[in-house]
Fold this sequence. Notes:
CATH architecture: 3-Layer(aba) Sandwich
Strand order of the largest sheet: 1-8-7-2-6-3
CATH superfamily: P-loop containing nucleotide triphosphate hydrolases
Number of domains: 1
CATH class: Alpha Beta
Number of strands: 8
Structural class: alpha/beta
Amino acid sequence: MSLDVDLVDVDLLAAELLDLARTRTRTLVGICGAPGAGKSTLASLLVATVNMTSPGVAVAVGMDGFHLARSVIAGDARATRRGAPDTFDADGYGALLARLRRADEAVVYAPEYRREIEDPVNAAIPVPRSVRLVVTEGNYLLHPDWRSARSQLDVVWYLEAPDESVRVERLIARHVRFGKSPERARTHVLGSDEANAGLVATHRELADRVLQWPAWTPERDGA
């Protein structure tokens, strides 16, 4: 059965998440979608909006912090498929979400992916025990082989771009902005990124809700 599509309304979604967070010690919400759909943008907007009402309640933690380092995959075929499921530490991501779910440590430090160096940085995002809402985003939150991560999430939303061709062009532009040549960026996006996007799309019906941006705006070019 096909899921209905809801247009993104950041204020309404943030209010919904804040209500969830008020009912439990820690709520974990996932945002899944294709590369370039705007997942990290939506996560950041939701966290910022929640924290405007209740400062310090929400934190964003990305799946991309669990990219395998370039030095780890440099010597094998994964180097040409970076961003595919097997180029992440899926079990490490699941273990982090389990720690966040327990909320029994004074602070948990999560890694963060830095596009300017194209590698993760360890212990870059502090999540104190006082945080009640964690918004995490990534391509593979609904992947059948990533059950250890999915089992820790209260809900997972699937985010769609309003225009696939624009998503692809913005993804190419983002790679160029972070140092790739236009030719290399286009080759990477039309090869590896779009192969991953096709895989992610097969998980759409496993989501609790499907969201779509009402229109592209300049700031909506995130992961």
